Amino acid sequence: MDPQAKSELVIQGIAASKGIAHGQAFLYLQNELEVPLYTVDADKRGAEIERFEQALVVTRQQISKIQDQVARDLSPEEALIFDAHQLVLEDQALIGETIRAFEKTGLNIETCFNNIAQRYIQAFAEIDDEYLRDRSADIKDVAKRVLQVLLGQAASSLTELVEQRIIVAPDISPSESAGVDRSAALGIVTDAGSHTSHAVIVARSMKIPAVVGTRDLSSKLKNGDWLIVDGYEGLVIVNPTEQTLFRYGKIQQAKQTFETHLLAVNELAAETLDGVHVSLRANIEKPDEVALVRQYRAQGVGLYRTEYLFFATEEIPTEEQQYAAYREIVAGLAPAPVTIRTLDVGGDKPLPGRPDLIGPEANPFMGFRAIRMCLENPELFKDQLRAILRASAHGRVELMYPMISGPDELTRANNLLQEARLELTQRQQAFDPQLRVGAMIEIPSAAIASDLLAGQCDFFSIGTNDLIQYLLAIDRGNSRVAALYDPVHPAVLRVLQQIITAGHARNIKVSVCGEMAGDAIYVPLLLGLGVDELSMAPSLLPTAKYLIRTLKMSDARQLAQAALAQTDAKKTYALIEAFYHARMQAN
Ligand code: PEP
Ligand code: MG
Fold first, then answer.
1. 3 falls in which pLDDT band (50, 70, 90)?
2. If you ran DSSP here, which 8-state letter would residue 298 be given?
């Protein structure tokens, strides 16, 4: 923002993750670096060298932080690469030459450092030795970080966020969002995105307040601008006045009091007033969320998105690495069940390190993604299947396939699973022979053929995020059409009913793990339609449980029947909203 114009500005976006944040903006723009060129006054040259030395220290801290995170999330071996980066920062030739060039020319330190670094990068790149050629990439990476620190620019990766800031970006990819450090990210604001885009799902899991769909806000802000992110109402307030800050202080207090009450109720059973128990589980993206699953009293995990393990590394994780991660979750939660979903990449989730496996596509959401890619890469898929099977020996695992479009794909996936079982038997490695296998129902064809699929699996898990996207032809990540993304569209309700009926006709469990399950306003409707289990971000569980304890299942069933009879989605929404408010306010 223009530094002269410090007046408050309120921007309406889409409320994506509940909560209120107040802090300074951290712009994440991923632009190419532009290094300015100027001469430093003679009396400021000492300070310029100090600025350089300080930048080296800050860069060192950033790299250590990333290194610790990689060691924790992946393995100590993967973290070793950063040792090479630290060595670059200690390279006396690079540092000494930069300072000498500065003393000789008086040009700003960024220019001197950039010139010397580029010379080294070029020289190493031309060496006919693979090891030394790799050093060129290390110097390039480190030089970019040092320049960013010197220029006070946003870092090239969100993992580098050290101070507590509100991340503001045009968009954030799922893999970038996975690198966000909860302790540093106060809030997230993106110009693009919608309620079900993957970065938002990650923000919700981490309980980071988020507002998306702010159009061009990121291009108007400066690093360090003060903001309030209101994840309840979908507002971003730039340069909030004292009155606004006071008002938000009050709102936050009230929310916290209610949250404390919710947490107390969350210790009780998820049981309706007429005695029906509802299974509530958590969605997770990373092994370290096991603690949240317990803290929020989930009865297990209903969706573990394994692709986030693949996002954390440049290489495809090996069977052993996957097994270690899955076992940590499964053993950590045993005897509670953990539903592990096989790799769901493609669409808006590219696979880092192996972009060749999917390739550029004109229509990635309808492209070579998830189970389609896995079935065409059976060795990669079976590595994962064996890792999941082996983890099943340490607790209770349910396995499910994403993006199943019909019976043929489910048969092919199950055949590969059977091969994986036989391979483990030959290796004499243990797995649970009773492992339950389910299909996600998130493509309209699977929903329509759900009666056929029900005979081929042990449970259904409805992925409403994709199911609604494909049913209504609304890109789930596009803020321009987000308002048309309607979970109570008559077609959606009919399809939900059809899936539930098909599952129950075969006595299999039907759960919902899309974001609709975690939005309390839809909970009575889903239960009334007959859904057996809901799975959502851990922090959303208390509200869902609170609501369940205030309703009668018989009323929820009536609500669902009334909703199914409606032709106008707005009236349907009004019905479920009235049902919700009547129960939330009565308590
Ligand atoms: C869904 O599509 O509803 C779902 C749960 O899967 P994801 O959000 O990972 O696509
Ligand atoms: Mg999906």
1. very low
2. -
User: Which architecture does CATH list for 42-151?
Assistant: Orthogonal Bundle (1.10)
Q: State in words which class domain 276-542 has.
A: alpha beta
Question: What's domain 9-30+157-245's superfamily in CATH?
Answer: Phosphohistidine domain (3.50.30.10)
Beta strand pairing call for 235-238 and 9-12: antiparallel
| Ligand that comes closest to the CA of residue 204 | 1
**Atom from ligand 1 closest to the CA of residue 515:** 3
514 lines ligand 1 (CB under 6 A): yes
Distance 463 CA to ligand 2 centre (A): 5
User: What does the pLDDT look like over 566-584, one tens digit per residue?
Assistant: 999 999 999 999 999 999 8
Alpha-carbon distance 148 to 285, whole Å?
A: 30
pTM here?
0.78
* Ramachandran class of 70: left when φ > 0, alpha when ψ lies in -120 to 50, beta otherwise: alpha
Q: Where are the domains of the chain?
A: 9-30+157-245, 42-151, 276-542
Is 394 in the active site? no
Which atom of ligand 1 is nearest the CA belonging to 465? 3
Q: Which residue intervals of 241-377 are DSSP H helices?
A: 242-265, 290-295, 307-311, 319-333, 370-376
